[in-house]
Amino acid sequence: MQDHIVVTINGTEYLAEPGQNLLELINTTDEFVPQICYNESLGPVETCDTCMVEVNGEIIRACGTAITDSMYVNTVIETTKKAQKEALDRILENHELYCTVCDYNNGTCEIHNTVAEFGLEHQSRPFQSKHYQQDNSSSFYRYDPDQCILCGRCVEVCQDVQVNETLLIDWDREQPRVIWDNDVPIDQSSCVSCGQCVTVCPCNALMENSIIGEAGYMTDQSPGLLRSMIELTKKTEPGYGPLFAVSDTEASMREERIEKTKTVCTYCGVGCTFDVWTKDRKILKVEPQKDSPANGISSCIKGKFGWDYVNSEDRLTKPLIRKDDYFQEVEWDEALSYVAKRFNEIKAEHGADSLGFIASSKCTNEESFLMQKLSRQVIGTNNVDNCSRYCQSPATKGLFRTVGHGGDSGSINDIAEAEMVITIGSNTAESHPVLASRIKRSQKLFGQKLFVFDLRKHEMGQRADRFFQPNSGTDLVWLSAVTKYIIDQGLENRTFIDKWVNSFEEYKESLSKFTLEYAEELTGISKNELIEIAKEIASVDKLAICWAMGVTQHQLGSDTSTAISNLLLITGNYMRNGTGAYPLRGHNNVQGCSDFGSMPNFFPGYEKVADDEVRNRYEKAWNTEIPAEPGKDNHEMINAIHEGKLNSLFVIGEDTGIVDANINYVTAAFEKLDFFVVQDLFLTHTAQYADVILPAAPSLEKEGTFTNTERRIQRLYKALEPVGESKPDWIILQDLANEMGYRWNYKHPSEIMNEAASLAPLFAGVSYDLLEGYNSLQWPVERDGTDTPLLFKDGFPFKDRKAKLYPLDFQLQYSTNEEYDLHVNNGRMLEHFHEGNMTFKSPGIVREMPESFIEISTELAEEREIKEGAEVKLTSEAGEATGIIHITDRVRGKELYLPLNANGKSAVNYLTDNRVDKDTNTPAYKEIAVKMEVIKKKGKSPLPDHNHRRGNRQPQKGVQVERKWNRKDYTFPGNVVKQDG
Amino acid sequence: MAEAISKIKRIEVPESVKQEQDLAEVSRKVSENKEAILKGIDLLAALEESDALETITALIKHREDALENMVQELNKPQYSATLENLSDLFLFLGQLKVEELFYFTDKLNHGMKEARNSDAEETSYMGMIKALKDPDINRSITLLLSFLKGMGKEI
């Protein structure tokens, strides 16, 4: 096999990889070939025909040619130029150039730039309207068929990148156009508003509503006037040259007032990065970049369109202090000195351990670092925790027990690369949409096997090659039974185990209980199915397992996470690309908040507070004494308040009073506090109990770093100034520490990171210089800046570099009973984030999903004789909630689903109780038995008519350009040239 | 004991205090940008003197109407030719060889000067024939003839 192939382009020789795309090769040279439909992130689409080149004497599409043999390419002779011009003319028949009054004229219009660079001066054939109306039905973007050049990028991205399978081009009608589902308005379709079609559109055919009439100096005109201006523009600007001179000048004037700032999304743990375009405080659009490490050009509805909350009227703009029955706005000085005084008084009276601190997984790494520093240095207590306690601590625990690092084994690319992906208790398509798309794409295009285990047949369940519904809380059992079967059959990866794994015999012994019979009885998955699962797992070379709250929020959450890791060790699915364990982090910085030390038992980088050597290091650096005893976690803090042992609580950016389990119990605790400080954007449910509320600034208004689910540290930059007198959390924490007599002097978050890096070996080489722009680092980061995209490449972080198999037992802890006969499952939905404090402030998102619902099965609806829209009351042992019924076939039998974004009377946490994971105190949110009482038998459906869930997907691969080529009126531009010539 | 409350009393900043703060901010900016502001005042004064200030103010206030009127007017068919001419004229200018034109215009100017100084009222037919013998007139005629010849080649 030869290594390289010689390709001669316009007389110069170049070396190509075998199979390399010809256009891709040409783009590495200085030669210019027009290419409008080609997009690096999408690959060849082959619709626009502009990249005509001559290869060995014949005119072909460069983008449709793979290099297999040495070839002679000519891009400049007259025939290719003519063919290219013919293709460009066809595009301009479909697209009117009125750049100066177009909102897309921002220097990045690919039609404009191609026509300009090609030097096309005159239009040979006039623009022709397609006679279709604009589609303005979506809340987020619009489609203008008259400007659409039918390049099909939007279809490619919808079908094969996002894999939502909504967009098509109907090539069969006389005048083709892009259609949604089976030709319905956008908002009646299955479109999930991920916005990727808009991102890849090369022109103004698909545009964000938020930028229309905003970007240009002359674009904000009434439609009639705009039309007249377009006509005028065309009359006065006869050739494209003068037109471009004017429009290019106008485009550069726009740069004067439009800022483009890189930021990191805050709506889940995937860590999408993008440029946010702002004009004053207006957000014009969000534009993911091909260099965005986690997401590339991808986004979801929330990241692309859900930023209205930063400009909400409800933002807190000044500190508030409780006075009798109201909050009084005060100046910062007064608020800070009051907090400092009360902290000091309580510490003096009850000791440092009577104060508690809860950091936010929505805040930056630097802010987590300062929160634990405030707690440990200024107050002197380890009572500091964060909301990963509510979700991810069990996964971290399971990984620490077995492989030694509490994070994803590899990157999202590794999940995409795996031969087989198993998801357990993860509603991936709604909770981590961009990551789910990578799996959906690999499954659709590259034959990746997808096995999904969940109670609810959500989108991933529907798409899975195999879908299993184990009984709630029994994943540990099937995992262990499958592992046992693999060992019993001798299908384990012996070489891997011998070389890299300890405690095999002991572990094997512990599995004796998990026979197929036992598993079938407990999980409801049949013996045969278990065998099939085991065989499939043992047969593949690369397996990645993703899991989420459906595993962790159980009383055996840590053990189940451990079982997953055990199975991966037995089958040798660690240490290589395309394999490993992937707990999918739910909040943007749930990983980083724990990484940077806001945990009662760990310093930054997961070094134990009980470890003298480590503690001394911090004591020396901070010139203080730190208790050796671990502090209280969130859950223990709430208990301690009830017991009178915790008197003061400081909560940042977490609506604990909604998102903690058993909120009746939690809010009762708030009422008992002597002093309660909440730092947030809004007067949240939790803040209503506070004595002092400090107004904080969201991600768009500050700098810092977040760490995503891949352990990837990424910088966010300030796009907007903080609203009113609100401040970035790190500044508030610093001001407070200084008010209490310390001299923190951080001028920029980079200085906080430098301190963290100097103290925590895990982040030794992290620095802002290495994180410029779209650069990122995946921890551990060595002192020289080398990061670790794939963990465990050279062994596991234990003394002998070997992983440990961890023996487990199982006792069924929970089930429904005769009185409380229904099981409530709960989780996210695509449109809203968490409890909805941010997303409910976006009118577009609220239009998509205005309220929450209680999802029940058709069987249960029939049994209780209720219809869609019925109103019911659910009662558990802990409390009650009411809500509106939505009947689907995603849930079965007596299982209910309650989205956790409901914050009124439907809040699921009125139902949850104090049961927790035995190892980490993570609430067992997923174990609620309730009874249901019907209040109203039917009513209006809580799901709007225009919600995407009512749509009708149209799966196909790509844009199906062959159908264009087969049209009677299509001639290949290369052939046209031949005819003419 | 702290029950949940949600009422907020805002700090009422008295109008006079707000004004004072604003004024302080403005005078600080004025002091920082003294030169620019003084020049700006000169500019305003000049505009005022020429009555232009009033016109510009009115135009800006009614910019939407103005733009609409302009665009609508310019889109009327009678301007179509003018607009097209405008751009054609622009292209025409680009094609002219100005240096060669100077050669002509120079001659034209000289001719006009002579013409102005001449007092002859009319020239007879024979006079014209005779005039061809005048080397100056002959050169002019030859020049015109070669011009006509060149133009004919392009027709």
TrEMBL record, chain A:
Region feature Disordered, mapped onto this chain: 939-965
UniProt-recorded Gene Ontology molecular function terms: 2 iron, 2 sulfur cluster binding; 4 iron, 4 sulfur cluster binding; formate dehydrogenase (NAD+) activity; metal ion binding; molybdopterin cofactor binding; NADH dehydrogenase activity
Nucleotide-binding is among the record's keywords: no
Keywords in alphabetical order: 2Fe-2S, 4Fe-4S, Iron, Iron-sulfur, Metal-binding, Molybdenum, Oxidoreductase, Repeat
UniProt cofactor(s): [2Fe-2S] cluster; Mo-bis(molybdopterin guanine dinucleotide); [4Fe-4S] cluster
PANTHER family: FORMATE DEHYDROGENASE H, RESPIRATORY NITRATE REDUCTASE
NCBIfam families per UniProt: Fdh-alpha
Family the UniProt entry places it in: In the C-terminal section; belongs to the prokaryotic molybdopterin-containing oxidoreductase family.
Protein name: Formate dehydrogenase subunit alpha
Organism: Virgibacillus indicus
Lineage of source species: Bacteria, Bacillati, Bacillota, Bacilli, Bacillales
From TrEMBL, chain B:
One Pfam family this sequence matches: DUF1641
Name the record gives this protein: DUF1641 domain-containing protein
Organism in which the protein naturally occurs: Virgibacillus indicus
